[in-house]
């Protein structure tokens, strides 16, 4: 069994070295580390060249032009030669037992296309925050259940995964070129190819969470909605059609996402032209009467009331989830 670790990066000079060194302290070392630099403009490239002279199993891809998140990640995954391939962002880190634990799970579950685990949030200074765990049992989920669960979103604690290369090949690697939801898209394609996934509730990695300074994340909302359109139109709907399943649950899920994201139409970070583009993308996701009602409400000043209700509901759900996850288990 050969194991690869792929680290796509762009302008992460402050963290990429820490990320790579977290791989080198694994209790089960990988056979290769592939770092793909997407034309960084900071000191990332110089740091990588220096580390490559120290770490014999490390190789670097230097993109000739900026390919974006999806394209750069896809290139790094395709370059890997391992039977199992870890995808690790260059500002995150693995804890020592990550590779050993998840490679064991993939070996035990040959129909799992990828393995994933709980994570510990860290901030930009590396200080530990809250744990992230999924509200599901440990172990294997079939491809059919994975597809059904995907209607509610990308079902991982964080996008730090160990893939089975065979599953990546059958899924066609990252076919989506949107820089939002490309990971969600890939997970659906893997399930569509007949692979489930396996989950460990053990915290095996650190996931860096950034504050939204300058409303950068808000300003990327159009890309996020376009990514969801790609997931539903080119991954989930074809998967349900392939299995001759009823498409009504897909349409309900699209409406849910459209309503949820319609709140951006009341944000003051957008001008009128940008709001028109957002509205068009939301309606492409779902054009039901309910969606149109929420769009109208946000455009006519009722957004604060809706956001308060949605925020309260989300807080209650988060509290209930935390209670369930922290409740002692009895035999």
Features:
331 residues, alpha/beta, Spore Coat Polysaccharide Biosynthesis Protein SpsA, Chain A, 13 helices, 10 strands, Nucleotide-diphossugar_trans, Glyco_trans_2-like, Glycosyltransf_2
Explain what you see.
The protein is an alpha/beta fold and 331 residues long. The protein has 2 domains: 3-208, Spore Coat Polysaccharide Biosynthesis Protein SpsA, Chain A (Alpha-Beta Complex), CATH 3.90.550; 218-326, no CATH class. Helix content is 47%, strand content 18%. The chain has helices spanning 16-23, 44-54, 68-79, 98-108, 143-149, 165-171, 182-192, 216-219, 221-242, 248-261, 272-285, 289-299, 303-326; strands at 3-9, 32-37, 58-62, 84-87, 93-94, 112-122, 128-132, 139-141, 161-164, 196-208. Strands 1, 2, 3, 4, 5, 6, 7, 8, 9 and 10 form a 10-stranded mixed β-sheet that branches. Helix 5 runs antiparallel to helix 7, helix 7 packs parallel to helix 9 and helix 10 packs parallel to helix 12. The radius of gyration is 20 Å and the shape is globular. The two termini are 36 Å apart. The model has no long low-confidence stretch (mean pLDDT 92). Pfam families: Glycos_transf_2. Residues 4-170 form the Glycosyltransferase 2-like domain. This is Glycosyltransferase.
Q: Which helices and strands occur, and which strands form pairs?
A:
Layout: E1 3-9, H1 16-23, E2 32-37, H2 44-54, E3 58-62, H3 68-79, E4 84-87, E5 93-94, H4 98-108, E6 112-122, E7 128-132, E8 139-141, H5 143-149, E9 161-164, H6 165-171, H7 182-192, E10 196-208, H8 216-219, H9 221-242, H10 248-261, H11 272-285, H12 289-299, H13 303-326
Parallel strand pairs: 1-2, 1-4, 2-3, 6-10
Antiparallel strand pairs: 4-9, 5-10, 6-7, 6-9, 8-10
Helix pairs in contact: 5-7, 6-7, 7-9, 9-10, 9-11, 10-12
């Amino acid at each position: 069994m050969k194991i690869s670790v792929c680290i796509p990066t762009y302008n992460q000079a402050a963290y990429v070295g820490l990320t790579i060194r977290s791989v080198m302290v694994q209790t089960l070392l990988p056979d290769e580390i592939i770092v793909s630099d997407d034309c960084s403009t900071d000191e990332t490239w110089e740091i990588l060249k220096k580390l490559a002279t120290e770490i014999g199993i490390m190789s670097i891809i230097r993109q000739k032009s900026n390919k974006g998140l999806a394209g750069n990640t896809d290139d790094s995954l395709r370059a890997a030669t391992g039977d199992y391939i870890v995808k690790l962002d260059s500002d995150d880190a693995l804890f020592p037992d990550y590779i050993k634990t998840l490679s064991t799970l993939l070996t035990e579950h040959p129909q799992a296309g990828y393995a994933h685990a709980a994570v510990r949030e860290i901030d930009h200074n590396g200080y530990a925050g809250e744990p992230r765990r999924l509200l599901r049992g440990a172990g294997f989920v079939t491809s059919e259940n994975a597809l059904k669960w995907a209607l509610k979103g990308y079902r991982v604690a964080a996008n730090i995964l160990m893939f089975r290369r065979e599953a990546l090949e059958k899924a066609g690697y990252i076919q989506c070129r949107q820089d939002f939801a490309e990971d969600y898209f890939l997970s659906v394609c893997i399930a569509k190819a007949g692979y489930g996934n396996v989950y460990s509730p053990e915290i095996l990695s650190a996931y860096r969470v950034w504050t939204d300074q300058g409303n950068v994340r808000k300003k990327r909302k159009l890309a996020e909605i376009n990514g969801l359109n790609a997931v539903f139109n080119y991954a989930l709907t074809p998967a349900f059609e392939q299995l001759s399943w009823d498409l009504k649950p897909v349409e309900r899920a699209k409406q849910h996402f459209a309503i949820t994201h319609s709140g951006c139409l009341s944000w003051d970070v957008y001008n009128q032209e940008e709001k028109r583009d957002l509205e068009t993308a939301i309606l492409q996701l779902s054009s039901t009467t309910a969606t149109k009602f929420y769009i109208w409400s946000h455009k006519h000043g009722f957004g604060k009331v809706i956001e308060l209700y949605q925020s309260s509901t989300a807080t209650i759900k988060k509290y209930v989830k935390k209670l369930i996850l922290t409740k002692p288990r009895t035999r």
